[in-house]
Amino acid sequence: MSFYLSKIIWLVVNPFNILVLCLFLTFFLLIIKKKRKAFYLLSFSILIIIVCGLFPFGKLLIYSLEKKYHDDVFLPDKIDGIIILGGATNPFLTDQYDQISLNNSAERLVLSIQLIKKNQNSKIIFSGGSGSISNQELDHAKVAKRFFIEAGIDTNNIIFENKSRNTYENILISKQLAKPRVDENWLVVTSAYHMNRAVYIGEKLNWKLLPYPVDFYLPKKFNIKPTLNLLGNFNYTQKGSHEWIGLISYYLMGRSEKIF
Fold it and tell me: Which of 7, 41, 207, 217 has a CB 3.0–4.6 Å from the CB of 202, allowing a cystine?
């Protein structure tokens, strides 16, 4: 139930959707000659454009999450297992064109190749089902398996988990499959801005996961200054706000004990 509810809530609180809705309502209010209300709504819309479009508000949201992982990754001498979180592929386009389709999070898969080769005795779990409401058959695990095969990786030693639909289920189902001991070292591979959520869920489930962040979006030195790249700034706002809303929601739902 929470999976479907999260999709609906995101449609409502999505910053770009809010902007479009405000502009439509402004136009409607002008038609029915509610000029004062239209003015207030238009002013709010302009404020959204300034904050999310002209200023790098979205970049700031992402930077605040990535900054925690700017230091070099610490890897213990022995790695017992590695979890690779899905989200780096486009299952629909892969199915349509019969060729692997990756997205902006491709590093989750690409950089995992090196980890797998260096830790051939470690347990490997790729966790990623379908995040789509309409089509649960097209999953990330299927595409990831094809990716690793074409990259020359022996997939017989990799568990491809395809039932999870979100980050909480990624970690929960992976733990059920891994059955980790307290003294085992497990890495989790995901985008740097997304790492907090994965690690915090693990802590809530009494599973200490060592972060292996990849897919950084911003440099280590970040300057807050306005730009005319409105679409780019809005894209960052979409991604950043989605992750922060996820962190807050999981905390309120009792799926983690931290927000930041």
Answer: 207
Collect all residues with Cβ–Cβ distance below 8 Å to 83 and sequence separation of at least 6: 125, 126, 127, 170, 171, 174, 178, 186, 187, 188, 189, 209
Q: Are residues 43 and 111 in the same domain?
A: no
pLDDT per 10-residue tile (average), the chain, 260 residues: 70 87 93 92 94 92 96 90 96 95 96 95 95 76 96 95 95 97 96 97 97 96 85 93 94 93
pLDDT of residue 12: 79
Domain of residue 145, residue span: 76-214
- Residue 190 sits in the same domain as residue 98: yes
Domain count, the chain: 2
The answer on 82 and 209 residing in a single domain is yes
